[in-house]
Write a structure and sequence with these properties.
Layout: E1 2-5, E2 8-11, H1 15-30, E3 38-42, E4 58-59, H2 69-80, H3 86-105, E5 120-121, E6 131-132, H4 138-151, E7 156-160, E8 162-169, E9 175-182, E10 187-192, E11 195-198, H5 219-226, E12 231-232, E13 237-243, H6 254-257, E14 261-263, H7 295-307, E15 320-323, H8 328-335, H9 337-347, E16 356-365, E17 368-370, E18 376-378, E19 384-390, E20 395-396, H10 408-430, H11 437-451, H12 461-475, E21 479-480, H13 482-499, H14 513-537, E22 546-547, E23 558-564, E24 570-576, H15 604-607
Helix pairs in contact: 1-4, 1-10, 2-3, 3-10, 5-14, 12-13, 12-14, 13-14
The structure holds flavin-adenine dinucleotide.
């Protein structure tokens, strides 16, 4: 086992993690701590982080135009359906354009207007065009820009292909580093540090049909749960309306922002029949109407259209068609080259000449580790957890609420990632270096438990993984009800029990992807159980959580908070929404406490609570 020291550990090499690492270096340098070490740990090479797949763009009010910060705040709050925190929204909105401009100074090739201003496009739920973009490869260019900048920082020590197994916290719940596994050398690595930033991404890959990469498995969320920290609003999972059938590959909302229209099996623009009208002219999209309505509404319209027999059957389910033909080859080539390539390669259609078949897929997870607007992690009582920060899709900052507006998340990774990195560096500068044999012994125990999974067990993981995706698709999708959620809950209990005897066939020390995928499956099961428990508890319809049996929206908006007890049981509470960071822990009398899980959590010790 290798034990190393750093000032700050950042877990995650996506946009949030790289932003945090760069900010931490900057803050250390400004404080004269040029010898500071920022450990950047990622289970994949950073450029393979899921941010690379982001297509459409990042929202930010371009100064000097018609758009206003107040309007961006208002749109975001409307999308959040009562669960966004106004102060958190304003915090991000006010810093958005500054971060997008900072990125440009680092080399980001934003698309521009003929006059040289940043080009902005329309996105669903946004009342004005305000999404900055680099064609439809925004995530690739953004991640590349950040990554190339990290390469010149000698203070950043990279731990690529290191799987973080757990957080190291003291008994007083102060962050002290991480324990991970170096897949290339086949060795446990402990990195001790007084400040940790979690930037591990979301958990939407748990769903069978998903736009997310295989690595988006909720690892950081399950670490937080095991550390006794709450996760907020896990049931809020955004389903994107336009994805390729079968693969789930995303056809970005930008395609509709550029003027693409959705038609049913008979060629009719069906959205007006499901509350998204009045119909807008073809090729002239208008904010919040028809194809530019909020994503949840478009996905719900698809659900109804499918039941009304208006979709085209395929072996991967019914599809509607996204028609881009009227945009013409020049616009498609310039603005939507990635979409065009995906459609040709994975659906066999050229969007210049044929409409693209699409159907919904799980896309973005609004819920996450509870933080303030600037990424400080909060415990169950709303108190800051010393030295622990979270940013990006793994965090619930209060920005997105019950439904994220497209293009608000990339900008959140930049803003909150940066603030978390600055704050983490501040903590590191004011604390003694983290050390202690107790911590190292604890880390060894945690690692040994995980390593002991290799070469044992009888349950093959693949069927568990498949069943997890199937049940989430079937019963925890666009619309939910008590029967479906009960089915999902029972299935997840069964999967949880079987996971305790999961088979890890490969016993290799080096590049043991078999083992790594089982760890990811454990994380997904843990977080999925939390999401289902929260969905059961929320007996109303709000944002991305629509209940057929509870169509009303409660007068009082409440967050769900999921925790895991030491026996491995999942608990849910509903708490009122207040200002960022103040609501949690404040019970309001009618709160419920729903415990689910295998009684006694007997096998939890074998996996440290996962699954
Ligand atoms: C197809 C697609 C298109 C999108 N397009 C847009 C868009 O146009 N605009 C927009 O605003 N949003 C978009 N989004 C959402 C946005 O891309 C993501 O929310 C954002 O990129 C997440 O960034 P992140 O840094 O939080 O996490 P990620 O980019 O997912 O990175 C997570 C990092 O954590 C690391 N990690 C995770 N677990 C571990 C572990 N156990 N040990 C070590 N490392 C670990 C991973 O290696 C990775 O480096 C899109 C999402 C998808 C799926």
């Amino acid at each position: 086992m290798r034990v190393e020291h750093a000032d700050v550990v950042v877990v995650g090499g996506g946009a949030a993690g790289l932003s945090a690492a760069l900010a931490a270096v900057e803050a250390c340098a400004a404080a004269g701590r040029d010898d500071a070490v920022v450990a950047l740990v990622s289970k994949v090479y950073p450029m393979r982080s899921h941010t690379v797949a982001a297509e459409g763009g990042a929202a930010g009010v371009v100064p000097g135009g018609e758009d206003t910060l107040d309007q961006h705040v208002a749109d975001t709050l409307a999308g959040g359906a009562g669960l966004s925190h106004p102060d958190a929204v304003r915090y991000v909105v006010e810093r958005a354009a500054g971060e997008l401009a900072r990125l440009e100074r680092l080399g980001m090739p934003w698309s521009r207007t003929a006059e040289g201003r940043p080009a902005v496009r329309r996105f669903g739920g946004m009342s004005r065009p305000r999404t900055w973009f680099a064609a439809d490869k925004t995530g690739f260019h953004l991640l590349h820009t950040l990554f190339q900048t990290t390469l010149r920082e000698r203070s950043i020590r990279r731990y690529d292909e290191h799987v973080v197994l757990d957080l190291l916290l003291t008994a007083e719940r102060e962050a002290r580093g991480i324990v991970g596994y170096d897949q290339q050398r086949g060795e446990v690595v402990v990195v001790l540090a007084p400040a940790v930033v979690l930037a591990t991404g979301g958990y939407a890959r748990a769903w069978g049909t998903s736009t997310n990469a295989g690595i988006v498995t909720g690892d950081g969320l399950s670490m937080a749960l095991r550390a006794g920290l709450p996760l907020r609003d896990l049931e809020m999972v955004q389903v994107h309306p336009t994805c390729l059938p079968g693969s789930g590959l995303l056809i970005t909302e930008a395609a509709r922002g550029e003027g693409g229209v959705l038609v049913d099996a008979t060629g009719q623009r069906y959205l007006a029949d499901y509350g998204l009208g009045p119909v807008t002219p073809v090729g002239a999209p208008e904010p919040r109407r028809m194809e530019l309505g909020p994503r949840d509404k478009l996905s719900q319209a698809f659900w109804h259209a499918e039941r009304d027999g208006r979709t085209v059957p395929t072996r991967d389910g019914g599809v509607v068609h996204l028609d881009l033909r009227h945009l013409g080859k020049a616009v498609i080539d310039e603005r939507l080259p990635l979409v065009s390539g995906l459609a040709r390669r994975f659906a066999g259609v050229d969007p210049v000449h044929e409409p693209v078949p699409v159907r919904p897929a799980a896309h973005y997870t609004m819920g996450g580790i509870v933080t303030t607007a600037s990424g400080q992690v909060l415990d169950d009582a709303g108190r800051p957890v010393d030295g622990l920060f979270a940013a990006g899709e793994c965090a619930s900052t209060g920005l997105h609420g019950a439904n994220r507006l497209g293009s608000n998340s990339l900008v959140e990774t930049l803003v909150v990632g940066r603030e978390a990195g600055l704050a983490a560096a501040g903590v590191a500068g004011s604390r003694a270096p983290a050390q202690g044999t107790e911590l190292v012994d604890h880390a060894r125990d945690l690692a040994d438990t995980r390593l002991a999974m290799r070469g044992r067990g009888t349950e093959p993981p693949a069927p568990l993984r498949k069943e997890l995706g199937r049940v989430l698709d079937a019963d925890v999708g666009i619309f939910r009800d008590a029967d479906g959620l009960a089915r999902a809950s029972a299935t997840l209990d069964d999967l949880h029990a079987r996971f305790q005897d999961v088979r890890v066939a490969d016993t290799a020390d080096v590049l043991n992807t078999d083992w790594a995928q089982v760890l990811e499956l454990g994380a997904m099961l843990t977080v999925a159980r939390g999401a289902v428990a929260a969905a059961v508890a929320r007996t109303e319809s709000r944002g991305a959580h629509q209940r057929l049996d509870h169509p009303q929206t409660d007068d009082v908006a409440r967050h769900s908070l999921v925790t895991l007890d030491p026996a491995g049981e999942t608990h849910v509470r509903l708490v009122p929404v207040e200002g960022a960071g103040t609501a949690i822990g404040a019970d309001i009398g009618t709160d419920i406490d729903t415990a689910v899980g295998t009684p006694g959590g007997t096998a939890v010790g074998t996996t440290q609570g996962d699954a």
